[in-house]
Amino acid sequence: MDGRPRAARRQGARGLRLAEPSPQPRLVPFFPTQIVIESWPGFEAGGAALRDTILARRAADRDPSPRWRSTPDLPHWGGEAARALCDHVLRRIDGMTVDKEQRAEGRGFRWTMTGWAEVLDRHGAIDLRSHPGSSWTAICDIDDGGGTEGGDLVFLDPRYPAVRMPIPELRPRRRDGTPDQHEVRIAARSGAIVMFPSWLMHGVRPFDGDRPRVSIGLTFRADWIG
Known about the structure:
This is 2OG-Fe(II) oxygenase. By secondary structure, the chain is α+β, with helices and mostly antiparallel strands.
């Protein structure tokens, strides 16, 4: 028992059953990792003001390091644009989440969000990390800093034993014929939002832009009700 409502029922939940084998071979990808990438609809209206608010907050801290991270209470000091961004992402991750034991009277959980801002100066980077205890994480680029190299958001393959196999250079062939990857990079782009499961290891490569790279991180924890 894990102390949460319906834990015993959840342990006995049945998984997906595949159809009977067909005469022709089929490639069936097990355990896909859901990553959603989109442009923030409110970026044109609120992005510049939000960037200026974050940079002013950083300046008030007088932190000379190439990487600055705010306190985790962004909605309280980030202004209307920050709250609009948080609300937008909340709607997205809520729509991507299924409670397999949802009752007829409604859902049995509520979301608790944590939000912060990060600023990278030239050569700044963010170490690989995950967010245990949360269900979803989102990163929004408010200003990509204008760099031509580096600053990519990096994801590591969560199937950890794969990189410890005797010949890790041998990869399965995917449906499109390309080899499976153990690392994926997404280039920074102002206004882009990337949403992914919080257990996925991620970081930011060293950045070479001439102006600060400004981003926002959000995590969403599901708290069970009753």
